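User: Let's play a game. I give you a shape written as tokens, and you guess the letters that built it. Ready? Here's round one.
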């Protein structure tokens, strides 16, 4: 079940305390909330912690839902408000800029890198990790607009409602975010720009040395439908700004971690 599938009848039953209905509501929203947190915060521990806290907020505030907007808009708005207001999340933001990220990408590039036995897996992990991390260079306001619009692909009406912006203001914010991400990837990402210094194969030795990726560990690319080479071919097959869109869309969508589900089940069933 997805957030678009949960019915008003199920939501009303959940508001009246029906445990099965509450579980259905959580099941409908948890993957979307986790992927929102994962793409906005990037750090997996922060994303998991934020997801659990947001889902608990949705549970505790469920009685206040009056169907004045869609349930999707209402739940996403709770998530965005939490991300913006949680001081511990703001304090953990690395303060990355595109200039800092570009300098890091161009440090330690190797002209003829040696191939590792798990080269293809490492390249895919590096591709996805780098694609996610570059969004940290956007301000939080622009990052949220970009994730809602170009990552989660919500329509303008819903995204502006979630961010509590007028549609014109949301369009302006999304356009600015897109322009910044496209400009950066065109200049610095070897999967998007033709004359860039950085490419995943040339970057891999430095990323391994810095611990950004590790042999035998592929947490961000686990379950990806695309290999590094598939993604390279898909991105190369489109033109101009669509290359950046394809790059961001090639990050795998993930299920909400099981430990979050177990904890919410424990909360729903105290003493069991």
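Assistant: Ready! My guess for every position:
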């Amino acid at each position: 079940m997805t957030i678009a599938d949960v019915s008003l009848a199920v939501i009303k039953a959940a508001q009246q305390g029906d445990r099965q209905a509450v579980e259905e509501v959580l099941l409908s929203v948890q993957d979307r909330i986790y992927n929102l947190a994962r793409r906005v915060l990037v750090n997996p521990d922060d994303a998991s912690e934020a997801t659990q806290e947001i889902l608990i907020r949705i549970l505790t505030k469920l009685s206040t839902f009056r169907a004045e907007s869609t349930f999707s808009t209402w739940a996403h708005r709770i998530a965005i408000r939490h991300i913006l207001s949680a001081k511990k999340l703001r304090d953990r933001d690395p303060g990355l800029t595109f200039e800092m990220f570009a300098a890091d990408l161009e440090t330690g590039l190797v002209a003829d890198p040696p191939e590792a036995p798990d080269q293809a897996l490492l390249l895919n992990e590096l591709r996805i990790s780098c694609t996610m991390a570059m969004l940290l260079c956007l301000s939080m306001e622009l990052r949220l607009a970009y994730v809602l619009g170009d990552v989660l692909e919500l329509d303008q009406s819903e995204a502006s409602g979630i961010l509590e912006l007028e549609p014109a203001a949301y369009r302006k914010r999304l356009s600015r975010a897109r322009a910044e991400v496209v400009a950066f990837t065109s200049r610095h990402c070897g999967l998007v720009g033709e004359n860039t210094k950085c490419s995943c194969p040339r970057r891999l030795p430095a990323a391994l040395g810095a611990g950004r990726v590790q042999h035998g560990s592929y947490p961000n690319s686990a379950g990806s439908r695309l290999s590094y080479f598939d993604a390279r071919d898909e991105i190369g097959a489109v033109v101009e700004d669509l290359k950046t869109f394809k790059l961001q869309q090639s990050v795998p969508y993930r299920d909400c971690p099981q430990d979050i589900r177990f904890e919410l089940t424990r909360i729903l069933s105290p003493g069991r």
